[in-house]
Structure to design on (321 residues):
């Protein structure tokens, strides 16, 4: 059974509002997952062509079975962007790990379920988290956890990892999570001490920051004039990259001045949404805002004209007597 709940559902739907009146839209979903967002967008927009990518084989199979109209490719959205020649109206990239991936212990993303220390989104190639933990030097581990996990001082955990792996290599998620819990301890209720360590490992294993940095400018180029790209991030490093790429592009403009975050109600219903952030970019010149003072002058002038006509009517009526 599929338990995936698309985050920021209404906000994603609203993000493409500027193409609402367009017909036969071409849509690209860079992180298809279980198609939650696509299903919502399909019911709100006239999507004539749907393209997608996902690195997860089970997501590919799910798409073929449930959304046969979608042309999906196995790979990252960077691989798509490097080859695509189709002009796009709508692009969505949800950069979070999908719930099915988190819930499958054998994928190695979760510190709550015991599984192999893997964390690869694409299990056909790439370095596993186990290789990083067991083979990286102390300095390299420090970079992984400090720069990518944004952990202020990971030194104690790193020393413990290096010491423990001398006698037994790290092979499972709970083995690593247990060490972090033992060394760092619980400092914040409801926030597992392994959270940021696992995040740092995942970002490095899947080269996620590089993919975002290289893919987003290419995807913006592939948008039609007036087209929209919406990106959901779950990590401050990713969000910063997206924010700067949108801000620095001279091909269009960031639609939302402030980042869009979930409501308190959504976070209560879906705790995994709490770190989600949505940014929107539209290709082409920013639509001119109506001059509210001009509108007021027009309304005032129209009012004066109507008043003159009323006075003339009254005057003519008085003359008839």
């Amino acid at each position: 059974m599929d338990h995936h709940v698309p985050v920021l559902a209404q906000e994603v739907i609203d993000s493409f509002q500027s193409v609402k009146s367009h017909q036969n839209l071409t849509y690209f979903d860079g992180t298809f997952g279980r198609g939650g967002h696509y299903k919502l967008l399909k019911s709100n927009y006239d999507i004539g062509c749907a393209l997608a990518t996902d690195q997860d084989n089970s997501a590919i199979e799910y798409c073929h079975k449930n959304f046969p109209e979608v042309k999906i490719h196995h790979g990252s959205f960077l691989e798509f962007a490097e080859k695509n020649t189709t002009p796009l109206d709508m692009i969505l990239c949800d950069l979070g790990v999908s719930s099915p991936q988190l819930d499958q212990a054998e994928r190695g993303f979760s510190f709550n379920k015991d599984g192999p220390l893997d964390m690869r989104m694409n299990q056909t190639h790439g370095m596993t988290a186990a290789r990083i933990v067991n083979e990286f030097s102390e300095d390299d581990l420090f970079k992984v956890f400090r720069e990518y996990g944004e952990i202020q001082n990971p030194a104690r955990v790193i020393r413990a990892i290096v010491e423990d792996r001398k006698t037994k290599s790290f092979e499972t998620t709970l083995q690593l999570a247990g060490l972090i819990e033992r060394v760092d301890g619980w400092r914040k209720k409801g926030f597992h001490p392994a959270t940021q360590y696992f995040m740092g490992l995942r970002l490095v294993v899947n080269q996620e920051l590089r993919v975002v940095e290289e893919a987003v400018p290419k995807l913006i180029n592939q948008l039609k004039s007036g087209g929209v790209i919406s990106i959901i991030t779950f990590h401050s490093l990713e969000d910063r990259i997206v924010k700067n790429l949108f801000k620095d592009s001279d091909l269009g403009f960031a639609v939302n001045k402030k980042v869009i975050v979930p409501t308190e109600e959504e976070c209560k219903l879906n705790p995994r949404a709490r770190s989600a952030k949505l940014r929107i970019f539209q290709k082409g010149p920013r639509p001119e805002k109506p001059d509210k003072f001009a509108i007021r002058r027009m309304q005032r002038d129209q009012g004066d004209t109507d008043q003159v006509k009323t006075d003339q009517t009254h005057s003519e009526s008085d003359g008839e007597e």
